[in-house]
Every structure is written in structure tokens, then in C-alpha cells.
Please model this.
Amino acid sequence: MKTYVANPSGYCQGVQRAVALAMTFRHEHPNLEIYVLGSLVHNEKVLMELEKIGIHSLLGNESDEEKIKKLPDGVGLIFPAHGHDQKLESLCKDKHIVILDATCPIVSASRDRIMRALIDKHEVIYVGTPHHPETNAMLSLSNNVHLYDDIKDDLLGKVKDRAPFVSNQTTLTFSELVEIFNRIKSVFPNATMQNEVCSATRLRQQAVRQLPSDVDCVFIVGGHKSSNTLRLYEVAKRHFSTLKIYRILDENDIDPKALKGCLSAAIISGASTPLQETMKVKVKLDGIY
Model:
């Protein structure tokens, strides 16, 4: 089968930085028990590799506060790339926990802009996926940060500021975000819009729309809980409605029997997908005739 790997592929800069920081943290503290508050990045393969070197992911439905309270005193804790509630750092200090903040700089910059708007006495409308770590981190900043999902049917009733600041999760779909921004602007003409979709997300979504015309099927490679991978899948489904679109974690999810009649395949990876995992998918597809 003919294969085409979309560019960019491999880790985005924020994920690459988070993984490198975690590896260095492990090297600098060889005798320390190290945990991550949730998932360092949203890719199961990466979490398995971290587990092998003694970096344990604190998953499950408990609150972040409860997870930290259950940790032994004096361990190491990594805050993931998606951001976190700043108040958790005080809880860690009380337990003498060694902290590493691996928050993506783009997420940190977005948080800082929201903080400036709050200091200037503006309410904030945040467009994000409910319960996503990045969304939770931004909502924790103030009760004056409102999740768009919660107020979209009653914007005027929930937001009293006639000139709110509008921000968003960095891994959303740009086209959908524009539609939401336009709706908010129709209700609040004086609102300030800050598009926070990161370049890695935007470029990958753009790459989906620019795939070769002779592609028969499309494979989106990424973690099951990866927001940006889900958005890539949704863009591909909309843009190539007649093609077979598959969302997979790795090459083991490929069923050659389901690809009968597919002569060419495009491969697109999420921002937290290691390049070697993308290339394993290519090798397997290359071997299908």
C-alpha cells in the first residue's frame, strides 16, 4: 500500500519539553519515588515508557487534591503539560513534596493572559472541553472564569461584564472555535477574543485538509484521551466524508482485512504521539498489498 505521512509528525514542542523534563527529573533524583498528577501527556504508550523508569501516573476519578493528600511525604511530583490548579503547590509544600512543573509554555502564557484580564476586573468566558485538565486548570483561577459549555444558552444571564475576555483550550478545532467566538461577539460586541489554539494543533489540522487527492483511507494516530487527536479525527471525518477514517493508538489497531480496496493511506499523528509510533504504523501499512 502507498503511504503518506503528514507533516508535522512526532511530539509538539510542549510535549517534547515535558517528557525531557521528566527524564531529567528522574536522572537527578534516582532514589526518589516520582509520580505525575494525572497523565504527563495524553498518550498511553508514553505513560508505559515512563512507568518503566519509575515515573508513576496518578490516574482515576479522585480529585487532584485527594491524590496529593494520599502521597507519602517527601516524594517527587510532576505537574503535567496541561496545567494545574496553582493552589495544589501549597499542598505539596506542606508535605515536603519535590515539585516539577512541566506545564507547556503556551498553556502558561494563556493562563497569564486570563490572570491579567481578571486583575483588570473582567469576567472570562473559557471555551474548552469539560473536565479536560487544561480546562480545569483555567477554571480554578477564579469563579469569574466561566466555562462556555455551562453558559452558552444563557450568556447574558451568567456573565455581567459587557466586555468579557474570551479565551480557549489550546487543542480545539480552529473552525469550530471561530463559530463560537462569532456567537459570543454577537452577544458581547465589546468582548476581547484571544485565540489560543497552538500552532502545533493548527498546523496538524491544516495538514489534514491538504492531504493528497488520491488517498483512499486516513489513519489518525494518538492516545485515546488526547483532545488534539480527537479534533484531528473530527476534521478528517468532515473533510473526507467518503473516505475510511480510522483513529488508532498504534499499529496493532490496524486490521488489514478491513482495508480491502484501499491502495493509498494517509497517516496523521497527534501532538503527543512519538514519531517512532507513527513510523511503525507506516511500516505495517507499507506491508499491506
User: Anything to note?
Assistant: The longest strand covers residues 264-269. The chain has a mean pLDDT of 94. Residues 13-28 form the longest helix (16 residues). The radius of gyration is 21 Å.
